[in-house]
Amino acid sequence: MKKKVLLTRKLHDFALMDLKKYYDIEIHQGKIPMPKKTLLKKIRNKDGLICFPYDNIDKDVLSAAKKLKTISTYSVGYDHIDVKYAKKQGISIGYTPEVLTDATADLTFALILDLLRRVTEGDKTIRRGRWTQIYGAYDYVGTDISGKILGILGFGRIGAAVAKRAKAFGMNIIYHNRHTLSKNTEKSLGVKYVTFDQLFKKSDIVSIHVPYTKETHELVNMKLFKKMKKTSFIINTARGKIIKENDLIYALKKKIIAGAALDVFRNEPIGLNNPLTKMQNVVLSPHIGSSTAETRKKMAEITVINLKLGMIGKTPLYSVNS
Ligand code: DGY
Predict the structure, then answer these.
(1) Is any ligand 1 atom within 6 A of the Cβ of residue 306?
(2) Mean pLDDT across the chain
(3) What pLDDT does residue 322 have?
């Protein structure tokens, strides 16, 4: 008899076809995210789980999953899984780093360029029929990227890929990370380590690239916004809850900082009742860091490979808790 795998959502057709060859798969069809009650019921007799970054795979789910051997998440982030408890239960976890590094760094840069050059704002102006005069000295002026200080919070794969792009744009790059790089690496990348406080004080643009953990929960809050330059911007393509969203909204309203570009939010998806949607000095995107055709395909491939390895008791290709 084939082993049973639950998918909390559909994946690419090629991935589903492959999975079907080996497993008896059940794909959740209804409301996204899958309601907890349904998940608790469905996970009971499953050997494998493919999930997404919005699925809350907590102690309750893991306790209900009496037969579960492996979890394969279609994401680099794994803050939605109780990793410690999974390990205790002997459940392996696979994830999809590396393949989405460039796509996420590209989006970070797209947001920086959009925000500082007011591209989306201009687009809205035109579409609303409000572009009435051309080329005024003070019209739609943005901010130069070149020569500005980019502060990268979290210098893992994505932070480093953002630095590479920033260098090409002539920016000065500072970073803060749990571990400092060697002097040689700093030199070759053209980056300089600063303390956490200095990063916020000195940067013209702060870009967040740390994972979401207990330690980074609402790490970026009013205390820090007050330390930032009034002309500075904040970019978040990591996880929404790293920023205290209400503090950010206040800081933007009161012009404590100049603007923000956000791909991630406290609660996703956000709707029009979120004040951020009304602000001119804000660029928003719907959690699309890894969302290119090429990257998403590679993520699906790795998700399947991780699952297959986990199902036979081997360490996933990219393992969170081995
Ligand atoms: C991830 O993989 O964790 C990203 O948030 C998806 O864009």
Answers:
(1) no
(2) 97
(3) 76
Is there a catalytic annotation at residue 186? no
pLDDT tier at 321, thresholds 50, 70, 90:
confident
**The ligand 1 atom nearest the CA atom of 96:** 2
In short, whether 290's Cβ falls inside 6 Å of ligand 1 is: yes
- Ligand 1 pocket, residue 92 CB under 6 Å: no
Summarize the confidence of residues 177-182 as an average pLDDT: 96
Strand partners, 174: 151, 192
Domains in the chain (CATH in brackets) are: 3-99+293-311 (3.40.50.720), 101-284 (3.40.50.720)
Told to judge if 178 belongs to the known catalytic residues of this protein, a careful annotator would answer: no
pLDDT tens digits, residue range 185-222? 999 999 999 999 999 999 999 999 999 999 999 999 99
Q: Lowest mean pLDDT of 76-80, 90-94, 137-141, 161-165, name the range.
A: 137-141
* Closest atom of ligand 1 to CA, residue 77: 3
Cα 180 from Cα 123, distance rounded (Å): 41
d(CA 149, CA 172): 5
CB hemisphere CA count around 317 (13 angstroms): 19
Atom of ligand 1 nearest to the CA of 237: 5
Q: Which of 176, 239, 245, 296 is catalytic?
A: 239
For the full predicted model, state whether its pTM sits above 0.90: yes
